[in-house]
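Worked example 3 (structure in, sequence out).
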């Protein structure tokens, strides 16, 4: 009936180390990336976008392993990943449009 997932501990540990590394990368990016003040709002948008991109990578790793999408039918993965992708795109688009309104 179900899939034989075997020993999942190595996969869990890979995701754990990936999440730890990406968390450290997020902190380093937040503390050490300084864009010129002349960039103004676009610099802020770039700063936040880098953090969100790292967060999206973390979400995908968690979904793939801990939600067991790795073992599911490709169509089910499609039904999960496409709405998640559209959510991210729409979130960026709406934030861009709002910040565009402030700039102009």
């Amino acid at each position: 009936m179900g899939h034989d997932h075997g020993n999942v501990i190595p996969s869990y540990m890979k995701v754990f180390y990936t999440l730890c590394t990406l968390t450290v990368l997020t902190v380093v990016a937040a503390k050490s990336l300084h864009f010129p003040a002349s960039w103004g709002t676009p610099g802020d948008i770039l700063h936040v976008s880098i953090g969100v991109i790292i967060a999206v990578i973390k979400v995908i790793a968690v979904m793939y392993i801990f939600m067991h999408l790795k073992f599911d039918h490709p169509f089910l993965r499609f039904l999960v990943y496409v709405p998640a992708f559209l959510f991210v795109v729409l979130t960026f688009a709406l934030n861009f449009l709002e910040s565009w309104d402030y700039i102009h």
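Notes: The first helix runs from residue 9 to 32. The chain has a mean pLDDT of 82.
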